[in-house]
TrEMBL record:
Binding site for Mg(2+): D13, D15, D176
Active site residues per record: D13 (nucleophile)
Keyword Metal-binding recorded: yes
UniProt EC number: 3.1.3.18
Originating species: Shewanella eurypsychrophilus
Gene Ontology molecular function: phosphoglycolate phosphatase activity
Keywords assigned: Carbohydrate metabolism, Hydrolase, Magnesium, Metal-binding
Protein name: Phosphoglycolate phosphatase
Enzyme class at the top of the EC tree: hydrolase
UniProt pathway annotation: Organic acid metabolism; glycolate biosynthesis; glycolate from 2-phosphoglycolate: step 1/1
Signal peptide region: none
Length: 236
């Protein structure tokens, strides 16, 4: 039996799932370190620091550059600089992953309500979605600072469940990070883990999502199987 037999709506992670945003996140991190007269970092390092929002990313970068734990006031001083640099170049080098637009289009045509559930600050989420012309697919957008808690806490997903008046087995979370899978499990919903994104360099399969996909387009095959299972049940 497919775990998505009752699927009614889908929540998508953003960074590492829909958009390969690390090149611009890395450039903003490097520009901030430069402005602070600190040693630089590589894009590869930033790839392993993304996942818990902008403040944690900057904290990891500072702690690497200073080679010690970071004081809150050092982080408070660095954050506006990072936010400024990233805002200036949100989509200079970032790209949509293959087939993202066509899959979102197909899911919309099947009338699935779609949401973004990201740990990215809201002031970056919406401009990025607009820049890639995919904002209109999402009827709900929850960013890292939209609620009191972010993923891996289930709060954004439980918020979505009550907002859309869905049972947990009717919502699916699609993401690249263990934070997505942990949040989904804590909310009691199903999840798909994508292998191509950012997961601290770890195998997403170790987080035990309901399915692992290597490409975004594979989601369509799984959703179609659930669609058929539901139709079958209707006719049985
Ligand atoms: O901003 C981050 O650290 C991660 O963002 P995501 O939740 O969209 O992957
Ligand atoms: Mg992600």
């Amino acid at each position: 039996m497919t775990p998505w037999k009752h699927l009614k709506a889908i929540a998508f992670d953003l960074d590492g799932t829909l958009i390969d945003s690390v090149p611009d996140l890395a450039a903003a991190t490097q520009a901030t370190l430069l402005e602070l007269d600190l040693p630089s970092c590589t894009e590869g390092q930033v790839r392993t620091w993304v996942g818990n929002g902008a403040r944690v990313l900057m904290s990891r970068a500072l702690s690497f550059a200073l080679n010690r734990e970071v004081e809150q006031d050092e982080l408070d001083n660095a954050m506006p600089k990072f936010m400024h640099h990233y805002q200036e170049n949100l989509q200079q080098h970032s790209q949509l992953y293959p087939d993202v637009k066509s899959v979102l289009e197909q899911l919309s045509k099947l009338n699935y309500p779609l949401a973004i559930v990201t740990n990215k600050p809201h002031e970056f989420t919406v401009p990025l979605l607009e820049a890639f012309e995919i904002r209109h697919y999402f009827s709900s957008i929850l960013s890292g600072d939209s609620l009191a808690k972010m993923k891996p806490d289930p709060m954004p997903l439980t918020h979505l469940l009550s907002h859309w008046q869905l049972e947990p087995n009717e919502l699916l979370m699609v993401g690249d990070s263990k934070n997505d899978i942990l949040a989904a499990k804590a909310a009691g919903i199903t999840s798909i883990g994508l292998t191509y994104g950012y997961n601290y360099g770890e195998d997403i399969g170790l987080s035990d999502p309901d399915a692992v996909c290597e490409q975004f387009s594979e989601i369509m095959t799984l959703v179609n199987s659930s669609h058929k299972a539901t139709e079958q049940e209707t006719y049985d």
